[in-house]
Structures are given as C-alpha cells and as structure tokens.
Design brief:
It comes from Micromonospora craterilacus. This protein is 36% helix and 17% strand. The strands form 3 sheets. Strands 1-2-3-6-7-10-11-12 form an 8-stranded parallel barrel, surrounded by 7 helices. It has a single domain (2-298), classed as NADP-dependent oxidoreductase domain (TIM Barrel, Alpha-Beta Barrel). By secondary structure, it is of the alpha/beta class. The longest helix is centred in the first third of the chain and has 17 residues, at 40-56. Helix 9 links the parallel strand 11 and strand 12.
C-alpha cells in the first residue's frame, strides 16, 4: 500500500488532533493541559506547536476529522506554510461538530453515515485539505451502520479510491470486531471497498486484536487509537503513557499508533514508547469486559 511505503522509516506513532482541535473533549486532565482561555487562536497555536514538534521527531502521519472542531483547518494551515514536506494525512467523516466552540455544549457531535453526509463532508474536507488528503475514513462504524449496506455510498467510495485516496473506517463500541469483519466483507466489483481500519485497542480493552490481525492480513492499513484509554492508562500506577503506547506498538498488526497529546511534554513522553521493549502479557490482568469498558468511557465528561 502506498501509505505504508511513504511511512517507511518514519515514526510508527502518528499525531491525532482531536484533543486540540476543539475546546472540549473526553480526555482526562484537560484543565491542566490547555490554556485557560481556549480560544480558536490559542488552540491553533497549540496545534501548530505539536505538529512542529512531532514532525521534527520523525512523525509523518497526522489524523483529523470533520467532528474535531477546527482540526482540519489547523492542519491545513500548517501544511500550506510547508509546501515541500511529505506527510500522510488521514481524516474522517460521519460526525458533525455541533458544540459551537463551547465546552459545556449539550451535544458535541451528531453521527450520520448517509451518502448525503459523505458528499457534504467530503466537500468540506476537500476545501481545506485538497490534494493533501491521503486517507478518508467513516467515523466510528458499528455493525448496524448503514455505511456497511449502502451500495450507492460504496460506489462513491470506490470512485474516491480511484482518485488515489485510501478509503477506510474507524470503529468504536463493544462490537468493534464484528464491525471490522463485516467491513472486510464489503466488496464492489469483486474488490474490497475498505482498505484501512482505525480502532480502539489498549491494555484495558484489547478484545479487537484478533479482528485487527485479520484486517492486517487482508492488506489493510491498521491504525490504533485511544491506546491510553482517554488518559486512564497514562495515570495508572505501573503503566504510564509510554508503556501503554509501546504495548500497542508491540502488536504485529499495528501499522500506526496514535498519540493524542495536548502538550509538548506529553508528546515527548509518548514518543518514548518507540524506545521501549515491553511484553503486553505482563499487563493482561488489566483487561476488562468490553461492555464495561465502553460503558465507563461513555460516562467520561467533556471537559
């Protein structure tokens, strides 16, 4: 896959901008992580600082989404100022950001996997990222998502792939493995529609691992998100952020593991993961039932 080739020799850690593209998110510790005044300009500056630091450290994969507030805009402006760099950019569609730049919003994002939403959001993404977009994924697919059954959408996605953009999906929830396996079976003209998978895997919730191995064996790019469990593993005694990320990097099916750092110190600590040799089995007793993990995650406050 061209993306894998382009990332050869780069850090296997990617930088996601979910935590700095909008003022509210579900990561722990945000009160200390972000400026007191979370203005657009303050977070634009923070995003730029993190992108500079990550690039200097060898990071070449950057992750954004339509629902991450202004993350696509921040990344696009950073790229426009550096026209000669070669990085891989992934974004996602399927959620619409609705918080209006407010932390205390009643609803932060609305999910819709319809063809109409794809057409609208791909236009919005394209207006910002243009030819820089390498990977476009459906955001948080579950087994009941209409995106897995909509033939008209599949044709549109195949058209996009023929233009050189890798088409994939991210997953969430206790049925991630089922969603991935269903997606692997979606074909058009005998060819698979989805060529990448981004899923939550961490020491608390590793159940999707076998399905990600199947996706990798099928030739998909595999990206790990939330390896720190929204910060819960970063503060857990005996684990910490670098170990948690190293455990994800240790998985033979993992091509990219995302850092969601909100500060330069966090990013530097996250990047230490590549220097660590760990045995994930040492922390096997941390795993909890998927239903419990996702219930607890759903109760994390937007701060």
């Amino acid at each position: 896959m061209a993306i894998i080739d382009r990332l050869a020799g780069a850090s296997r850690i990617g930088l996601g901008l979910a935590a700095v593209g909008r003022p509210g998110y579900v990561n722990l510790g945000r009160a200390a992580d972000l400026p007191v005044e979370r203005t657009v300009e303050a977070l634009r500056a923070r995003a730029g600082e993190l992108l500079d630091q990550a690039y200097a450290a060898g990071v070449r994969y950057f992750d954004v989404a339509r629902s991450y507030g202004r993350a696509e805009e921040f990344l696009a402006q950073w790229l426009q100022a550096r026209p000669d760099i070669d990085v891989v950019v992934g974004s996602k569609w399927g959620y619409t950001y609705t918080a209006g730049w407010r932390v205390e919003a009643e609803t932060h994002e609305v999910k819709d996997h319809s063809l109409a939403t794809f057409d609208r959001q791909y236009g919005e993404t394209g207006a910002l990222l243009g030819d820089s977009l390498d990977l476009y994924q459906i955001h948080s697919v579950t087994p009941d998502s209409p995106a897995l059954r909509d033939g008209n959408l599949h044709r549109r996605l195949v058209d996009l792939a023929e233009q050189g953009v890798v088409v994939g999906l991210s997953t969430s929830g206790p049925a991630q493995a089922e969603a991935i396996r269903r997606a692997l079976g979606v074909r058009l003209g005998g060819q698979p529609v989805f060529r990448s998978v981004q899923a939550t895997w961490n020491l608390l919730e590793p159940s999707v691992g076998p399905a990600l191995a199947e996706a990798h064996d099928a030739g998909c790019l595999v990206i790990v998100k939330e390896a720190l469990a929204n910060g819960r593993l970063a503060i857990r005694e005996g684990v910490g952020d670098a170990v948690a990320l190293a455990a994800a990097l240790h998985q033979p099916w993992a091509d990219v593991v995302l850092s969601g750092a909100a500060t330069g110190d966090q990013l530097a600590s996250n990047l230490r993961a590549e220097t660590l040799t760990v045995d994930p089995a040492r922390w096997a007793d941390l795993a909890v039932p998927g239903s419990r993990y996702w219930q607890e995650r759903s109760q994390l406050p937007w701060t």
